[in-house]
Task: structure prediction
Amino acid sequence: MTSTEEAAIALQDHVALWSVSEVSGSDVVSTACEALVAGLDTPGLRVLAACTRAEAVYDVHDLLPAALHELGLVFYPVDGAAGREAAVPALARRMLAGEFTPSELTLRVHRRYGHEPLLTRRLAELDDEYDTLEYGGRTTDEIDAEVRAVARTLGAHAHVQGREG
Result:
């Protein structure tokens, strides 16, 4: 994968996470700056990357659609179903990158999605296993390993809609 592909995936992930309030507008702006440095360059991306932290709170929502369209990326409306679905693999990739622990991934996913969506069911079940470690037959290391395996499966398809790889 080229650095521009990685930057596009990172930006798409941050947009999905922003749409479900997992990251701030300022985080999206920082990722836009990193995308520019990596070689992605469109007028809308430059405008987005130029936002200050204070402006990001208010302006990201308005600037994202055009910037993403220019890049062939998807804009996820705040609290929309598509953003919620895209946020799960994004969270999995962040955990695999070491940004938080396997138990933190399961807790975040379980709190946000519960046991119902098939995509997240196993992570919610593993969160329950962390809660019952003293009564179960598994160790934290065993559960962590399974969480990582599930996360690798979820995060393996780093697909950026609208972009050819």
About this structure: The first helix runs from residue 3 to 19. Residues 81-155 form one domain. DSSP finds eight helices and no strands in the chain. The chain has two domains: 3-71, 81-155.
